[in-house]
Specification:
- This protein is mainly β.
- The chain has one helix and 26 strands.
- The strands form four sheets. Strands 1-4-7-10-14-18-21-24-25 form a nine-stranded mixed beta sheet. Strands 3-6-9-13-17-20-23-26 form an eight-stranded parallel beta sheet, with no helix packed on it.
- The longest helix is centred in the last third of the chain and has 6 residues.
């Protein structure tokens, strides 16, 4: 894949229009270490797919579309990540993680100030690993569309994430699968905004737990979504959200709203095409319409079509088709 290791320039420029596929471990790996500051990346219009581990090893086995370590403010948008498959996980205490996008930080430095929008992420799966019940630390080994180890003040807008593949053979009981997982290591995950996304998780099987948004629980983790609203949430085989830190599962939207999130979100089944476009010819409730966000300027969708207040969720503008029979 593409690797940028320990850059020291504050304005890194573009990483754009790359197609990366049929590789193992990382499609894109950008890592600076906790002692440097770098930002200014504009990472857009890349397609990463068929990142897969195909044989068993005894080492850590992480399969990630885009890996980011200790990032400073940058733009990550209009990327398409799909078919991220971890069929063989490592052994011991570090079995590896599986994600469309993975953000790593620690007690020294978080990933901070990023804008993540217009991305399509789908078909992310692994055997499933449940370490949370015994240690709590290993939440980041749960498969997710966006898996954020430590992030602060990030904006996640108008992405479409579809967790639509079953666990791979040999999966363990109790694994947690989510569209977005947020957890902060000591410095905390705080001030984050998740708005106008379409989050669909219809994974099922072998005792797995499925969520649209998951906050892991552990004594050293400080979790905060910040603001999560105007999202379309669908998890027919699981729960809308869970916070293991408070031992709370929000099975339905009304309980998530009672916790202070998603007053203007909607819980509904969404029909997505194979490339994460909302299927305009399927039955779509008018509740899918959400007002334009104002905190960031994203006037068009991933196809370049102008957004309106009536069509503003996810990365792709959708159209309704009406047939009139005479």
């Amino acid at each position: 894949g593409l690797r940028v290791y320990y850059p020291k320039n504050e304005n890194m420029g573009e990483i754009a229009h790359n197609t990366i596929y049929d590789i193992t471990y990382y499609g894109m790996y950008i890592y600076q270490g906790s002692t440097y500051n770098f930002g200014g990346f504009d990472i857009h219009h890349n397609e990463i797919y068929r990142v897969e581990k195909r044989q068993s090893t005894t080492s850590t086995s992480s399969i990630v579309g885009m890996y980011f370590g200790y990032m400073d403010p940058c733009l990550i948008h209009d990327n398409y990540i799909h078919d991220i498959i971890n069929s063989y996980e490592g052994t011991g205490n570090y079995p590896g993680y599986t994600a469309g996008m993975y953000f790593y930080g620690n007690a020294t430095k978080a990933n901070e100030g990023m804008q993540i929008y217009h991305n399509r992420i789908k078909s992310v799966t692994s055997r499933g690993t449940d370490y949370s019940s015994s240690t709590g630390y290993y939440f980041h080994y749960m498969p997710a569309g966006i898996l954020a180890h430590t992030v602060k003040n990030i904006e996640v807008y108008q992405n479409t994430i579809h967790m639509n593949m079953p666990f791979t053979a040999g999966g363990v009981q109790g694994a947690k699968w989510s569209c977005i997982t947020l957890g902060g290591y000591y410095v905390g995950s705080s001030g984050n905004t998740i708005k106008n996304n379409i989050l669909v998780n219809d994974m099922i099987g072998n005792g797995t737990e499925s969520y649209c948004i998951y906050l892991p629980g552990y004594s050293s983790y400080i979790n905060s979504v910040g603001t999560a609203d105007y999202n379309v949430l669908s998890c027919p085989n699981g729960s809308i959200a869970a916070n293991d830190g408070t031992n709370t599962t929000y099975a339905y939207l009304d309980s998530w709203q009672s916790a202070g999130y998603g007053d203007n979100s909607t819980d509904m089944d969404v029909s997505l095409t194979s490339d994460c476009h909302v299927d305009g010819q399927a039955a779509i409730s008018e509740d899918l319409s959400c007002p334009l966000i104002t905190s960031v300027s994203i006037p068009t969708d991933i196809d370049g079509e102008t957004r309106t207040a009536a069509n503003n969720n996810g990365c792709r503008y959708y159209k309704l088709y009406i047939r009139i029979d005479k």
